[in-house]
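Hey, sorry to bother you again with one of my protein questions. There's a protein on my desk that I can't quite get my head around. No rush at all, and the record is pasted right below.
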Amino acid sequence: MFGTGEMFALLGIMLLMVFAGVHVAVALGIGAVAGIYFMHGDITVVRAFIAGTAYEALRDYVFAVIPLFMLMGDFLAKCGAARDLFALINRLARRVPGRLAIATVFANAVFAFVSGVSIAAAAAFSRIAYPEMKRHGYEPKFALGCIAGSACLGMLIPPSVLMIVWGVLTEQAIGKIFIAGIIPGFILAAFYCAYILSVAWLQPERVGIGVQLTSGGEQVDAELGDAEFREILVSTLLVIALIAATLGGIWLGFFTPTEGAGVGAALALLLALWKGLRARELFEVILSVGRTSAPLLLLLFCAQLYSRVLSMTGVTAAAKELFIASGFGIIGVLAIMVAIWLVLGCLIDSISIILLTVPVFGPVAAALGFDPLAFAVLGILAIECGLLTPPFGLLVFTVKAALPQEASVGEIFRGAVPYWFALLAAVVVIAAFPKAATWLPEVGLAIGK
């Protein structure tokens, strides 16, 4: 068994590799192999350990959840689900101040149920929502910050890739983590809407109220015709039915998350074909999902190696004892963890943060009595802050790439600051009221019985 100094030296070397630009999968793999070799001094043991972990990890059919949910989201994105959602919610909210920003938030919330990733939402709504906001006189910084901030909902509302990674890494039920994110997701959306409404009331010029949009002073508004409205309504109701069938079946225990992902992907394909998906687009979706999900599977395999090595070398147990002996209590320890996540969010991507920290933080939170489901949601919320934090800020750069001429990166970051604080507020809510995350899974378990 390693001494405490050797254990944390190994962890530190691996973190240095990540910060030096080594791919996180490579860093995790090297750290795991080095740890096993230093423990046993036998390369045969190392080979056997890698082979055994690879066989146990990759044969698990839960790994199919990632590509199947990605297929579901990409099929619906290709057939215009995001555009239809935005148009419908915009029409229904036409009497609400700042309605285009509100429509962006709610369309992101609904689209999150099928997308699984925030980048897809940020790219889509940059092209769908921003032209309408610009035409209605919205301040560019406010509009682009709204798009980047509301795209974060894609990582919290199921079927989030971050939730899948968290579930695989901690060996928690992915279906329960999915359902645990729903109420916190809508709490976060409510915080976003409260901010937008406050801006519309206090600074109406930022949301285009009072701005003349034509030379004659007549406000232009692209209203949907009745026939178009009915078509979009039917399309949106079909998407909602797909979401209800997929997540409802998982929630009630009718099928596993993997089976639910398969059902969702098949129904999404049928809906996309009904809406005119062509063979070339179908091939593009499958190829894109393969290119995206294959590296994730490699990451998860290396992360499982790393997680097992941490347990075997005693790093996890040592960290648990250190935090428990600190006397900070559960709130103090959670605050330290959130602070670490916020700092890491400035440096590396969300999945890498989960892979590096959750094998250590998860057992500590459980030992202190914090519910694992609530901790998963709290952690994902805190890690999501990194999506809006400079200099990494992946969602900000996605919006910038989609609309390169509209604003500087700095302006988009400043526009997203209120949404960053809303994420922190949601973290505080879950820390204070864990039931917000655990209530729905408990209800589903009770009904399933």
Summary: The two ends are 44 Å apart (CA to CA).
